[in-house]
Amino acid sequence: MAKGRKNGLYEGVSEELSRLMRTGWADSERRGTEPAEQAPYAAARRAALSARFPGERLVIPSGNLKTRSNDDTYPFRPYTGYVHMTGDQARDGALVLEPRADGGHDAYCYQLPRDSRENDEFWIGYTAELWMGRRRTLAESEILLGLPCRDVRGAAADLAAVTGVPTRIVRGHDPALEAAVGTDEDRDDELEEALSELRLVKDAWELGEMRKAVDSTVRGFTDCVGELSRAVASSERWIEGTFFRRARLEGNAVGYGSICAAGEHATIMHWTDNDGPVRPGELLLLDAGVETHSLYTADVTRTLPISGTFTPVQRQVYDAVYEAQEAGMAAVKPGAPYRDFHEASQRHLTARLVEWGFIEGPVDRAYALGLQRRFTMAGTGHMLGLDVHDCAQARTAEYVDGVLEPGMVLTVEPGLYFQPDDLTVPEEWRGIGVRIEDDLVVTEDGHENLSAGLPRSSSEVEAWMAEFAG
Ligand code: GLY
Ligand code: MN
Ligand code: MN
């Protein structure tokens, strides 16, 4: 008898059960598998990566399941660089680019194939297919991904066997493969930088996915407006659940923890507890994004007056943020230094804060000293794509010190946050937080606001709520 797991209710497996389980299964090969629409785009991305590292072997793992407790695992999230270079989302995989003498590479992909039905693993192991769902055969993966595929269970031995080929691996995703290749940390970091930089400009397929993510997000925001009265009767969690339902129905999930921040919670940049009350007269800051089935995410924020209309002070703050966003968006165009949109927005907010007497002018001095940061907190935006803060490992010269190019997608998200215990502002300003965040793609002659389907100015927001608020 095979041994059962600790505290399992079955003590073992009899020989006869084992024989019974191994027999009587139909052929379930999926013969209609088609190449993924994304496959040629992923091939072009691999060619760009190959050109950066002639003569070197590159290993890009997808990552492993992480245990939450016992036989429960966290939802699997494949490493972003692997998804980008393959279009695949399978766990325990790895893309390998094997160098050729001509300076190019041959690509192949390690995959965890289907479980054999010739031993008990396929039905006993908790990560087995019978428990977690069917995987692809190697033949299916080859067609889908347009890549030769090999059984990952031989990967560590294969990689360890070939010596004398300079190798880099992306670290932090697959300890067994890392141990097998035994590489150098600094050189490995350069591979991760390159993978981040190759995502700075999105290809046509990716831009289509970004549009889907934003369009679903727009619908999710409208859902939330329609559910406001229920949120007032319940809590911020009602908003979180409402948006999540849209994200799960139309996409994979939310692209990051939704920030459903009513009242003074709006002054907390990463408020994701979402367990507070939703009170008429206060503002609701909703920062949320749907992630598509292909794992591209939107990142949008609207700040709504819960009662439907802004108070005079709320409107004063809101309009300042709106104008700062307009100034920032005007700076998003090809050839512009990346930092311009941030500086344009921040300067505008600095001017308002000086005008209101909250920081000491003149504006140039206050801005040079960064005094506005007490109330603006964060940078004005970031690249967006497969990760909400996409391309984060890119070299500074290529990202924040770089120049905007057509196909880049970024957020413009100025905000003002007056903490509830800030004695430097009048009492009625305390606890007000406003952010407006849109997702822009740089075009040949400027930009397109992908999230323009959502109202933005204070009067548009009020009209929207008058129409949809439930
Ligand atoms: N939702 C995270 C951000 O806006 O950057
Ligand atoms: Mn953002
Ligand atoms: Mn956001």
The helix tally amounts to 17
Radius of gyration: 26 Å
Number of strands: 19
Mean pLDDT: 96
**Sheet bearing the most strands, described?**
5 strands, mixed
**CATH fold field value of the largest domain:** Creatine Amidinohydrolase
**Can you name the CATH architecture of the largest domain?**
Alpha-Beta Complex
What CATH first level of the largest domain would be assigned? Alpha Beta
Spell out the key features of this protein.
470 residues, alpha+beta, Creatine Amidinohydrolase, Chain A, domain 1, Creatine Amidinohydrolase, 2 domains, five-stranded mixed β-sheet, three-stranded antiparallel β-sheet, 17 helices, binds glycine, binds manganese (II) ion
Give a verbal description of the structure.
It is built from 17 helices and 19 strands. It is α+β, with helices and mostly antiparallel strands and 470 residues long. It folds into 2 domains: 15-197, Creatinase/prolidase N-terminal domain (Creatine Amidinohydrolase, Chain A, domain 1); 204-468, Creatinase/methionine aminopeptidase superfamily (Creatine Amidinohydrolase). Strand 18 and strand 19 (446-449) form a beta hairpin. It is globular and about 75 Å long. The structure holds glycine and manganese (II) ion (2 copies).
How is this fold's topology laid out?
Layout: E1 2-3, E2 12-13, H1 15-22, H2 39-52, E3 57-61, E4 67-69, E5 72-73, H3 80-86, E6 94-99, E7 105-111, H4 121-124, H5 129-132, H6 138-145, E8 149-151, H7 155-161, E9 167-169, H8 175-181, H9 185-197, H10 204-226, H11 228-233, H12 236-250, E10 253-254, E11 259-262, E12 283-288, E13 290-291, E14 300-305, H13 312-330, H14 339-355, H15 363-369, H16 373-376, E15 409-412, E16 415-417, E17 433-435, E18 438-443, E19 446-449, H17 458-468
The site of one manganese (II) ion (MN) has 4 residues, from loops.
